[in-house]
From TrEMBL, chains A, B:
Database matches in InterPro entries: NagB/RpiA_transferase-like (IPR037171), SorC_transcr_regulators (IPR051054), Sugar-bd_dom_put (IPR007324)
Recorded family membership: Belongs to the SorC transcriptional regulatory family.
UniProt source species: Desulforamulus aeronauticus DSM 10349
One GO molecular-function entry: carbohydrate binding
Keywords: DNA-binding, Transcription, Transcription regulation
Protein name in the entry: Deoxyribonucleoside regulator
Domain named Sugar-binding: residues: 61-312
Lineage: Bacteria, Bacillati, Bacillota, Clostridia, Eubacteriales
Length: 319, 319
DNA sequence: CTCTTCAGTGAAACTTTTTTCACATGTATA
DNA sequence: TATACATGTGAAAAAAGTTTCACTGAAGAG
């Protein structure tokens, strides 16, 4: 798309501006263009990733809250990031970084690591640094959201992991929920799908987000549910999902038939992972997080301060 | 110096500005300070390294010129970087990056790598990325410039290499040129100095700048030479120096007595290195570069386009 | 205790950057 | 060939960011 000539000029202008501190007007003279164009080209350089701005700061944690949650649910590890700025993107970025750091501590050669998709996972990928490991396999834990096979969202997440770990990907290019149990069985029997599912089962590490049950869920918006069907689900006590499998606040699975129509790793299987790593962000997800913890679908939790507090409140009010 | 509270606010403001794209005026409202202060704090965040701006671009090379130089002087490798922007800092940065990339290709476990100081070396250090190698030793090839033992310049360069390579440093905390041959011999006999010199001799890789002989040289300014002494040197044909040892355009050493009063690796020793890597930048250094190449003190050259052309001109005009 | 000094601040003046607007150029389409 | 349409430009207007300046309050000196 962008020619090399073009990019060279962008680089030149960016360097004159950011490395040498020239004013845009001086650059305009040098390049014989208007200062307006210089401004526009600098903007383009940002968008094309030629200019990178990074804010460097230590990873902070709220240890007391983390310890309380870890003990209460007998987790392997809990990490609570402080809410420095109350904005989802900022919090998710901090969570993503924390998860990423943790992964680079635990990943080793020959590992199989399963990942799902969601709103938080992209932030893990964004913060993933090159990790030195050999023969790692990345598997997709559950199908994509779009029904038209291969959602770009999940593909990008897997790709990020693959690049950072120098790994081999195993995708699950199927819908996450299908119309009948028979169809789900048939799909799972397909040799490619089956291979990925097997690897997901064997994975030592699984990383996924915790979803909140509600009409704003991606699954609803992607048309996986009729309105009445979803309402029934909510009335039956659904508070959240992991890999598109819905559970109640006590951790029990809501609808066994639905569960059987869902393709991908099961919640049972997650229980047995050495590392079942969940990331969650947002107060409204507190019930979902509590459900996930009570169901033991998670042994390593990454969560923000506000949500962590809300979770503890919920638990304490139950007692 | 800066309190943690203070830094936290800097980080917060930097993130609001660069990650969320808030205007300084909005941030001023949030933090209940004036927009002038926000501007000042952002400036401080830059200076403290909390905000990093990087221009990302591929490493470009002028292959034809490089090949011509490589062949003519029978070098192992020559790398000529294009002059995108005619400013010493920019060119040196490109050179530094090129050297740094090359080093990360060739460095291996148990290596000994000797480095000098100069105006170009800091740019190599700046661009050095973490290199995975074990038990590497970094030695200082020649004494610092200041006569007061331990020049910060060279210390910083060594430190950069040590950090990047996870290496152990061997410093040479002595003046580079002393008053008498006897003193030089005595200093070299000191057990610490001797150890470093030995390691420098054994080093598989040496990295250094090529200096130009002239009254603007750091050595002159540091008071190593009387004016008349230096004039004599120039009249005797000195065009440049490597590790404070002066040579003519044909590569011959200018003053044997001075050479013997110089502490550090000898030019002879550089000739036998597996990798004798020189970096040079600036048209005015062309003669010095030609001398270094003719003397075979270099087998791997990193140079900018303009200087490379000038060198070839010089050689061709001699023929 | 008073005076001086100094770092830090906001308001306002100033500079720099971005956006708007009108126009030009080239390209695809009828 | 004419016509719509997108793309890119500079001049000027508008917005955003920086610097100057005068003032404040705190720390140290007398």
């Amino acid at each position: 798309m962008a020619g090399i000539d073009n990019d060279l000029q962008l680089v030149k202008i960016a360097r004159l501006y950011y490395e040498l501190g020239y004013k845009q007007e001086q650059i305009a003279q040098i390049e014989k263009i208007s200062k307006a164009t210089v401004s526009r080209l600098l903007d383009k350089a940002h968008k094309e990733g030629i200019v990178e701005v990074k804010v460097v700061y230590p990873q902070l944690e709220v240890h007391e809250l983390a310890e309380e949650i870890r003990e209460r649910f007998n987790l392997k590890k809990a990490c609570v990031v402080p809410v420095m700025i109350d904005h989802p993107d900022v919090i998710r970025d901090d969570l993503g970084r924390a998860v990423s750091n943790f992964l680079s501590e635990i990943i080793r050669d020959e590992d199989i690591i399963g990942v799902s998709w969601g709103t938080t996972l992209p932030f893990v990928v964004k913060n993933l640094s090159k990790i030195n490991a050999n023969n790692v396999i990345v598997t997709q834990l559950n199908g994509g959201v779009t029904k038209h096979y291969l959602s770009t969202q999940s593909a990008a997440i897997i790709e990020g992991f693959v690049n950072s770990l120098n790994a081999v990907p195993y995708m699950l290019p199927v819908p996450t929920i299908v119309d009948s149990v028979e169809l789900a069985t048939a799909i799972s029997a397909d040799s490619n799908v089956c291979k990925t599912l097997e690897l997901s089962q064997k994975a030592r590490i699984a990383v996924y987000g915790i979803g909140k049950a509600g009409f704003d869920s991606i699954l609803v918006q992607a048309g996986y549910f009729q309105k009445e069907e979803y309402e029934k689900l909510l009335q039956a006590g659904a508070v959240g999902d992991i890999c598109s499998r819905y559970f109640r606040i006590d951790g029990s699975i809501v609808d066994q038939e639905l569960n059987q129509r869902t393709v991908g790793i099961t919640l049972e299987e997650l229980r047995n992972k050495e590392y079942s790593i969940a990331v969650a962000n947002g107060e409204e997800k507190a019930k979902a997080v509590v459900g996930a913890l009570k169901g033991k679908y998670v042994n390593t939790l990454f969560i923000d301060e506000v949500t962590a507090k809300k979770c503890l409140e919920l638990i304490k009010s139950e007692e």
